[in-house]
Amino acid sequence: MNQAPIKPKNKKDVRDIRAEALKIANSIKVDGQAKAEVKAIASGIQRGMEQFLRQQSEKTRDLDKRVKKVKQLAAHAAQDANSSAAPTMNTLQPSRLPWVLLGISWGLFFATAVIFWQLKS
């Protein structure tokens, strides 16, 4: 029991494109135009539609590739961040800046106190 693969609904069949092109060609037909001319116009419209659909398919594939690449890069970056964050948390040393600022402020306080004490006497 071989079943034909089910086509996605967004793909147009060649017969659908041909019928649509013929319908467009007949709608723009001018009085006195021969059937051969209408068919030639319809085949030109059909080629244009097929070319447009091919371009859209290429754009979609390209976009899918880019999305996949971005997802891979994001996953890779998240994995790197998780693996590099754990060791650095343990190796962080306390900062000396608060102690230096505290020492400077106390030094300035004592210097100011000494200056005022000398001015009073």
How would you describe what is shown here?
This protein starts with 13 loop residues before the first helix and ends with a helix. The protein is built from 3 helices and no strands. The chain has helices at residues 14-27, 35-91, 97-120. The model has no long low-confidence stretch (mean pLDDT 84). The chain is an all-alpha fold. It has a domain at 9-88. The chain is rod-shaped, with a radius of gyration of 39 Å.
Summarize the main sheet.
none
Percent of residues in β-strands: under 5%
Number of helices: 3
What class, by secondary structure content? mainly alpha
**How far apart lie the N and C ends?**
113 Å
Q: Which shape, going by the Cα principal axes?
A: rod-shaped
Rounded mean pLDDT score: 84
Please bin the fraction of helical residues: over 70%
- SSE order: HHH
By DSSP, the count of extended strands is 0
Radius of gyration: 39 Å
User: Could you name the ranges where pLDDT drops below 50 across 5 or more consecutive residues?
Assistant: none
Keyword list:
0% strand, 121 residues, single chain
In a nutshell, what does this entry contain?
This protein is mainly alpha-helical and 121 residues long. Helices cover 79% and strands 0% of the residues.
